[in-house]
Amino acid sequence: MLLERIVSAGLAHYSYLVGDKNLALVIDPKRDVDEYVRMADEAGMRIAFVLETHRNEDYFVGSMELAARTGAEVWHADGQWDYQYGHAVTAGQRWKVGRLEIEALATPGHTPGSMSYLLRDPAEIPWMLFCGDALFAGEVGRIDLLGGDLAAENAGQLYESLFSRILPLGDEVILCPAHGSGSVCGESIAERLWTSIGIERKHNARLQAGSKEQFVAFILQSQPDRPPYFRRMEKVNLEGRPLLGALSSPRPLDARSFLALFEKHNAQILDTRQELAYAAAHVPGSQSIWLDGLASFAGWFLSYDRPILLVGEGNLVENISVILLRLGFDDIAGFLAGGMLSWHMSGLESDSIRTQTVQELCRQLDEGERVWILDVRFDSELAREGRIENSQHIPITAIAERMHEVPRDREVVIFCGSGMRSMVAASYLKAQGWKRLCVVLGGMAGWRSIKCPLKR
User: How many other CB atoms are there within 10 angstroms of residue 407's CB atom?
Assistant: First the structure.
């Protein structure tokens, strides 16, 4: 028997490989499918089926790539939409892999045709539920993807799916959601790596609602921001395009060739180094997104319409390109060979961003200096942690649409939880023409450590 959960780092996306005897299936595959093929081959199994729980919004699904590699049948949910590949799943449909059986359960709400898949063991005991984005550890699926006008209706459907179809399966059934903590598909997914219906029934705050009306009102109170790249993912995941060799490594470019490509093709430069390295010296006009934050923020700050040039550290270029490809950024034109050292050795100019410590900012405020502080944390962080008095708040994901609120005629001191998102915001503003920017190192973590005052 084979049962593997495959985690896509950064995206907090979970896919699953299930097999028995000589057959296997994959649920919600990522775009780079080598791992599934290798695991099944090592177990002596053929991947016969690919099942999708819903039309995915946050990553490029790999169903057609896997089908092209293995000959597997692809079955997609949300049959009401115009898919250009595979077959539409119907509720009650079953698949056999060896002694195991999987049954499709209709669990709409996150999307109108979302499906969950109930796995029964060889004794036909309900064992696991692959629930897609219907239910997570500590959270439920978002209901805003079809627009605000339908959010209440979707929340009502999700209530019926959870309370009438999933919870009655029994507390002992293991839940296998499509995402874990850190995903943009849920506001506060818990860090439980594995969970069950019983654990969620008892500890998931969303499931404590006493009625459908209370549940809907609770869900509508707060929904996370919707990344702009979701629209593109919704489109390409109806088309199901295979990779067609797009996973080849980006080509190395010397500094002069890198600059020439940037100027000729109006390319965008992505720098994934840590905030201190970027602050000290970076290619003018580049966008800073640190590597561990790339999956979360690339869709907010990068364009699909322009080629991407990479600046990174060490031998991480392939890791960077894989994350981008999972998000549908295929046009990676190359990377700066030798990094910023080669850039400077070629005699090219670099730019920098001023930084300061929390002690320095606290001293300025204590001495009565007028400091324009831009806090780019999320609303939930402000509510939980407090804020610096008189600071201005624009969440990092709203910078592009609200940058007109940021003054250009005075220094802007940018503040977040640690300094990482502050550098993302600073690099974006600098590329748009802001000149007097300063990033606070350590952010709220450092501020609290030295007991500077906070406003609740």
Answer: 13
Radius of gyration, alpha carbons of the chain: 24
Residues 133 and 30 in one domain: yes
Residue 243 is predicted with a pLDDT of: 60
- Residue 318 has a pLDDT of 80
Q: Per-residue pLDDT for 434 more than 80? A: yes
DSSP assignment string, 319-364: HHHHHHHHTT---EEEEETTHHHHHHHTT---B--EEEEHHHHHHH
Cα–Cα distance, 164 to 245 (Å, whole number): 44
Catalytic residue among 176, 362, 416, 438: 416
Q: What is the β-pairing status of strands 73-76 and 46-51?
A: parallel
The answer as to whether 244 is a domain residue is: no
| Distance from C-alpha of 70 to C-alpha of 67, rounded to nearest angstrom | 5
Same-domain pairing of 217 and 272: no
pLDDT digits (tens, 9 = 90+) for 252-293: 999 999 999 999 999 999 999 999 999 999 999 999 999 999
Task: Return the bridge partners of 415, or none.
Answer: 375
DSSP letter, residue 250: P
Residue 333 sits in which domain range?
A: 252-345
Q: Which residue has the tokens 């592009």?
A: 400
| pLDDT higher than threshold 70 for residue 150 | yes
Q: Please count the other Cβ atoms lying within 10 Å of the Cβ belonging to residue 405.
A: 11
Catalytic-residue membership of 452:
no
Q: Which of 323, 345, 367 is the last residue of a domain?
A: 345
Q: What is the mean pLDDT of residues 379-400?
A: 91
Total-model pTM:
0.87
- The domain that holds 292 is classified in CATH as 3.40.250.10
Structure confidence at residue 51 (pLDDT): 98
The average confidence (pLDDT) of the chain is: 92
